Amino acid sequence: MKSHIAFLLTLFTITTVFLNCSNPSANDSATRESGKTDDPKIVDIKNYIREQGIKPQSLTVLIDKSEKTLSLMHNNRRLKTYPVALGSRSMADKLREGDNLTPEGDFFVQSKYPHKSWKYFMWLNYPTKDSKQKHRQAKKQGLIPKNASIGGEIGIHGVSEGRDFLVNRGIPWTRGCISLRNIDVEELYGIIGCNTTLIRIRK
Question: Which H or E run contains 29?
Fold first, then answer.
């Protein structure tokens, strides 16, 4: 009898541990693949923003290079998270043109427009004053050549038709830009404001 009870207790413990360990990773994967809202009460993010009267200047776009995610934030609350693809597997900050790295810091969208290859393009104001300072410092330290240029035309955009898998799998393919699935970049295009919404990029 005692051995039977011990067996049942052991089985219960193993089952509980398995469920606790397996569910979070499954949920994380599902969130990355589906782009569902972090808050289950928000079914339609664009309608939610309109109904709540949220202005573009009160939103923050947080891009996490390590997690390969773009999160739409309001008052430190994560409204929705989207998967992204970058230009390199390296998490280093961009210091020069041609390194395919994504710059870090605070930016704004200076212009946005439909793009024939990538659905939409939201052009960031890189290089900023801070970007230029890091570029000059890297030259002084010998990290990049003296004649290296700082580069530009960094933005948030979609993918060529039928290539959403690049984002779903986190495959680096851009030259430093942040790439979204086309359905996601179309959604964000109508939400992010020019020179108003803060775009914060970090490791």
Answer: helix 2-34
In order, the DSSP letters of 103-148 are: P-EEE-EEEEEEETTTEEEEEE--S-HHHHHHHHHHHHTTSS-TT-
**In this predicted model, what pLDDT tens digit does every residue of 119-169 receive, in sequence order?**
999 999 999 999 999 999 999 999 999 999 999 999 999 999 999 999 999
> Residues 69, 105: one domain?
yes
> Is 1 in the same domain as 64?
no
- The partner residues of 105 in beta bridges, in order of sequence, read 201
Q: Does residue 43 sit in the same domain as residue 133? A: yes
Q: Do 149 and 131 touch, CB atoms closer than 8 A?
A: no
Task: Give per-residue pLDDT as tens, 50-59.
Answer: 999 999 999 9
Gap between the Cα atoms of 168 and 137, Å rounded: 36
